[in-house]
Structures are given as C-alpha cells and as structure tokens.
Specification:
CATH class of one domain: Mainly Alpha
Shape: elongated
Low-confidence stretches: none
Number of strands: 0
Number of helices: 14
Mean pLDDT: 90
Helix content: over 70%
CATH topology of one domain: Serine Threonine Protein Phosphatase 5, Tetratricopeptide repeat
Largest sheet: none
Strand content: under 5%
Distance between the termini: 78 Å
Structural class: mainly alpha
CATH architecture of one domain: Alpha Horseshoe
Length: 256
C-alpha cells in the first residue's frame, strides 16, 4: 500500500473511532494491519479500538505489538494500564501508567493530566487516599479545565467527610459548559444530595431536575419529588421504602 493511501486509511479509522463508530474503526484497522503488520501506529489504534469494545485480550496483544515495534509510544501503555486496572492488577497498572508518563512529551499537558487522573482513580481503589488526592490535584494543575479530575476530587473529599469542600468543587464544576453528560449527571445528583443534607431543599430539587434532564432514574425522580429523602443513607432509604411497600401490600390484602 502506498504511503499516502495508508495515511488516508489510518485517518479514516481514527475518524470512525473519534465519532464513536468503534466497530467500523476496528474493521478498518484490522484490514490495515494485515497489509502493514510492521506499522506500530496501526497496532496502537487497534489496541484502543479493542479496549473500547471490551476485547481485552486482543487489546493487550495489539498494545504489546505496538510497543515492540516502537518502544517510544505512550498510548499502548495506557491501554495496558486500563486492562490491568479493570482486572484488579493494580501494581501492573501503576507501572504502565508510570511508563506512559515517561513516554509522553512534557508539553502534552492534556494527555499527562489524563494519566494523573487515572493514577488518582487507581490510588483510590487501593485506599491510598493521600496519593489519590495528590495525583488528582496534579491533573488539575496541568489542565485546570478538565472536568473529570475535579469531579473525582470532589467525590474523594465527600468520601472523607469534607462536605463543604466537595460542595464547593461541584458548584465550580457545574459552572463549566459542554460537560460530558455522565459527568454533569453525577455532579448534579451528588450536589443535590449535599444540598438536601443541609436543608436546602429548593436548591436540591433544582439539581435533581437538572440531573433528570440528562438521564431519568428512579432515585432522581424520587429525590426530585421529595428532596428530604436524600438526607437518608442508602440503607435507611431502602428500609423506609420496604416498610412503605409492606404497609401498602397489607392494605391491599385487607381490601380483598
């Protein structure tokens, strides 16, 4: 295949991946890797496609092949880290993320911030909360407008009982425009719960309404209708709903 044709083929595959047409992108890359088995960039893109399709074995194979062909690549380390993290191999994931940071150019702030966010998540999963906070704050230093590290930092603060700090972070986050829907939904829902626990029911209802506009959920509808319920723990809410169900069921049986 001529170099220009190969570049066009690879560009088409990348465009498909970026547009969310992962299966199409994977098919294009599979065809291209058959024609150019020594092209490290093709293996790198194919590894990305496979990990998005949860074909982890194929993703690992493609990532390792890419690194064998070009050890200077950074993204295959990220693929290997993601697979290891999802399979509970935390030490391996940490090693791969460190290798990815070492391979990334110092000026690629966005990519480095994404890796530090991954490290923060990894440290959180391992209950290394101080290191998790440090990694997430480093991600925000590199890319202050990146929403996911800020959301994760707020959730970490909340997990540690620092509710005022978490609330401030979430309020700041929700001032941003063009947030990813899953980030906006979780931020609104969590902020609504914080407002409810402080007795700010009107503010809580507004946040639950915003969350519902993104994705309708049972809890979202329940909390929007009765924000005071968001003050309860998950266990207490479950017990309350169970008691209510049993009372209604008993009433139904009596009427029969």
């Amino acid at each position: 295949m001529a170099e220009t044709e190969s570049e066009e083929f690879l560009a088409a595959a990348r465009e498909a991946l970026e547009a969310g047409r992962t299966v199409e992108g994977a098919r294009l890359l599979e065809a291209l890797v058959q024609r150019e088995p020594e092209n490290a960039l093709v293996h790198q893109e194919l590894a990305t496609a496979w990990v998005r399709l949860a074909r982890y074995g194929a993703a690992v194979q493609a990532a390792r092949r890419a690194l064998a062909l070009d050890p200077q690549l950074a993204r295959p380390h990220g693929v290997l880290a993601w697979v290891a993290l999802n399979q509970g191999r935390y030490a391996e994931a940490e090693t791969e993320l460190g290798a990815q940071l070492a391979a990334l150019p110092a000026e690629d702030l966005g990519s480095r911030a994404a890796v530090y966010n991954q490290l923060g998540f990894l440290y959180y999963r391992r209950h290394r909360y101080t290191e998790a906070e440090g990694a997430l704050r480093r991600a925000l230093e590199l890319d202050p407008d990146r929403p996911i590290p800020l959301l994760n930092l707020a959730l970490l603060a909340l997990q540690q009982g620092r509710r005022s700090e978490a609330q401030e972070m979430l309020e700041h986050l929700l001032q941003q425009t063009d947030l990813p829907p899953e980030v906006e939904h979780l931020a609104c829902f969590t902020l609504g719960q914080l407002y409810a626990r402080r007795g700010r029911y009107a503010d809580a209802r507004a946040q639950f309404a915003r969350a519902l506009r993104i994705r309708g959920t049972f809890l979202g509808r329940l909390y929007h209708a009765a924000p005071w319920l968001a003050r309860l723990s998950t266990t207490a809410l479950f017990v309350l709903l169970l008691i209510l169900f049993l009372l209604l069921w008993n009433l139904f049986l009596r009427r029969r």
